[in-house]
Amino acid sequence: METGQQSGAPGYGREQKLAVTAEEHHYPTDCVRCDRELKQDTAKAYTAFETVDVEWADLKKPGISLTNTKHTYYETVCACGHCTQQAPHRQVSHHSTPNIFLSEWRLVGPGLAALIVCLAYRMRLSRARIQEFLRDWLGLEISVGTLHATLHESGAAVLPIEDELVEAVQNSGLLHVDETSWRELNTLLWLWVFCGQGVVVYWIAGRGSELLVNVLGSAFQGWLMSDGWQVYRYYLKRLRCWRT
After folding, report:
1. In which order are the strands placed within the sheet that holds 187-195?
2. What are phi and psi of 143, to 5 degrees?
3. What is the DSSP code (8-state) at residue 127?
4. Which of 90, 192, 203, 106 lies closest to 146, judged by CA?
5. Backbone dihedral region for residue 81 (phi beyond 0: left; psi -120 to 50: alpha; all else: beta)
6. pTM for the model
7. Cβ neighbourhood burial of 78 (10 Å; 0-12, 13-18, 19+)
8. pLDDT per position as a tens digit, 13-47
9. C-alpha–C-alpha distance, residues 70 and 212, integer Å
């Protein structure tokens, strides 16, 4: 039964069946009750799932291809009578996204997730266009819901890295900041770039001071290089570029 599914409700599975290209077996190693070491030869499989990924090209093998790895999870009954199951790891990725869980139980592997993120945010394709690309060029059927979850979970997974990048921006002795228009469907937003010593970070937000304040706050004590846009004028240690 799917998470959140009502008891007795019909289940839905993937209609597209892909050939399995690899298998991974996950066994419990120790009893969770008595810590006794468990033997693999007495384990029994209790669940399994498949993860689709892309195999990236190299000079010896041009192009990209799909892989499909079957993950099988086992349970073992200890001599003490307790049944221990090896389960896929699951956790909240970041304190700011408490409702997004990252789990090893995934249809989309990391390489395929990176491709979906690229198509959505670098190539700026809609969910429908991403579906079309994956179907026509890779022969892979993926639902809009799976694409949506992949983008949200990928964003949540890199949030700890964003914290490190923000800290590097705040610690820059000289920071260049600029913004340019960026349209999302019918909404006009702005693409901001923060270029410091050894770090470059981009954000998409409004053109007001909110993003600038959230990123720099009171932690930034270096020199700010910018144009004459009014949101920058609150920083006393500011170098004005010659752009009009």
Report:
1. 200-205, 187-195, 174-184, 223-226, 238-240
2. -75, 160
3. H
4. 106
5. left
6. 0.79
7. buried
8. 678 999 999 999 999 999 999 999 999 999 999 99
9. 46
